[in-house]
C-alpha cells in the first residue's frame, strides 16, 4: 500500500472503512425507537441524518485520538501509520480529533429530547478509552460501551419511550460482540494468548443477538418476508464471524488484523437482521448497503 498524503492520510487515520459499521448501529437503534411509535410511521429522515452525521463524526474523532495517544507505540510497532510516518502532525491530529468529537457529540445531544446525557457519556467514554487503553487491560470494556451507547442514542432520539427489552438486546448484543472483538484485537500485534483464543468463539453467539429481538417483539406470520431477510442476514453474519475465527487461528503475520477487519465488517449484517426482524425493511436494506460500503473501503484503509 502506498503512503497516502493529504486527504488520503486523514482517511487512513480515521479508519474510514469502519465508519459504515457505526452507521448501521444507528439504523438498528432507530428501528427500536420506531417500535414505540405508530407502526406505520415513516423513518424520520431529518433525525436520521443528524444521528448518522453525529455518530460518524464521533467515531472518526475516536480513531484520530486513538492514533494521537498511541503515537509512541505506533512508532515502534506500526511506523507506517500517518502520525509516526510524519504525514500528519500529532498536534494537528489532537486538535482535529477533539474538535470533531465536540461537534459530533453536540449533534447527538440535540438529536432528541432523550439524548443529551447519553451523548455526553459517549464522548467521555471515547476520551477515556483512548487515554487508558494502552496500559489498562480492561479498556476494551469501555470501547464496547461506546458501541452499545450508539443504538441507545438513536432509539431515544426517535422515541424517548423506546422499549427497554428490545434496546437491551440490541445494545447488549453490540456490547458483547465488541467486547469479545476488542479483547482479541488487543493482541493483534503479539499474537493470541489462550484466553483470547477461547473468547473469539463467543463472537458467533453474540452475532445471534437479533434472535432475542425477534423473540421479544414476537414478529407475526404476516412478517414472513422480513423475518426471512432478517434470518438470512444473521446467518450471513455468523458465517462471516466464523470465517474470521478460523482466520485468526492461522499462523500468518497479518492473520489477527485480517480477522478483526472481517469481524468489524459483518456488524452491519447483524444490524440488518435487527431491522428486518423489527419490520423495518428500509433500514435493513440501508444496513446491507453499509455492509457493502465497508467491504469496499476496508481493503484500501486498514480496519485496525
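^ Assign residues to that structure.
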Amino acid at each position: 500500500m502506498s503512503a497516502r498524503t493529504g486527504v488520503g492520510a486523514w482517511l487512513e487515520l480515521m479508519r474510514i472503512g469502519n465508519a459504515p459499521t457505526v452507521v448501521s448501529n444507528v439504523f438498528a437503534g432507530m428501528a427500536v425507537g420506531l417500535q414505540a411509535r405508530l407502526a406505520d410511521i415513516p423513518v424520520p429522515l431529518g433525525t436520521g441524518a443528524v444521528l448518522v452525521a453525529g455518530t460518524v463524526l464521533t467515531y472518526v474523532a475516536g480513531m484520530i485520538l486513538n492514533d494521537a495517544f498511541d503515537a509512541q507505540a505506533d512508532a515502534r510497532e506500526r511506523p507506517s501509520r500517518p502520525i509516526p510516518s510524519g504525514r500528519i502532525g500529532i498536534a494537528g491530529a489532537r486538535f482535529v480529533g477533539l474538535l470533531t468529537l465536540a461537534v459530533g457529540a453536540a449533534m447527538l445531544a440535540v438529536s432528541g429530547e432523550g439524548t443529551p446525557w447519553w451523548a455526553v457519556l459517549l464522548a467521555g467514554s471515547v476520551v477515556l478509552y483512548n487515554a487508558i487503553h494502552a496500559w489498562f487491560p480492561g479498556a476494551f470494556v469501555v470501547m464496547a460501551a461506546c458501541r452499545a451507547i450508539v443504538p441507545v442514542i438513536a432509539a431515544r432520539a426517535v422515541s424517548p419511550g423506546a422499549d427497554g427489552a428490545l434496546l437491551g438486546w440490541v445494545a447488549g448484543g453490540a456490547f458483547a460482540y465488541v467486547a469479545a472483538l476488542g479483547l482479541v484485537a488487543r493482541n493483534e500485534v503479539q499474537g493470541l494468548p489462550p484466553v483470547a483464543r477461547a473468547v473469539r468463539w463467543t463472537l458467533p453467539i453474540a452475532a445471534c443477538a437479533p434472535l432475542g429481538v425477534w423473540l421479544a417483539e414476537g414478529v407475526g406470520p404476516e412478517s414472513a418476508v422480513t423475518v426471512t431477510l432478517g434470518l438470512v442476514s444473521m446467518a450471513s453474519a455468523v458465517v462471516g464471524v466464523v470465517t474470521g475465527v478460523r482466520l485468526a487461528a492461522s499462523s500468518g503475520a497479518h492473520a489477527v488484523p485480517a480477522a478483526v477487519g472481517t469481524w468489524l465488517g459483518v456488524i452491519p449484517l447483524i444490524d440488518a437482521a435487527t431491522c428486518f426482524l423489527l419490520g423495518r425493511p428500509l433500514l435493513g436494506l440501508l444496513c446491507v448497503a453499509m455492509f457493502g460500503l465497508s467491504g469496499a473501503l476496508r481493503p484500501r484503509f486498514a480496519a485496525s
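The chain has a mean pLDDT of 90.
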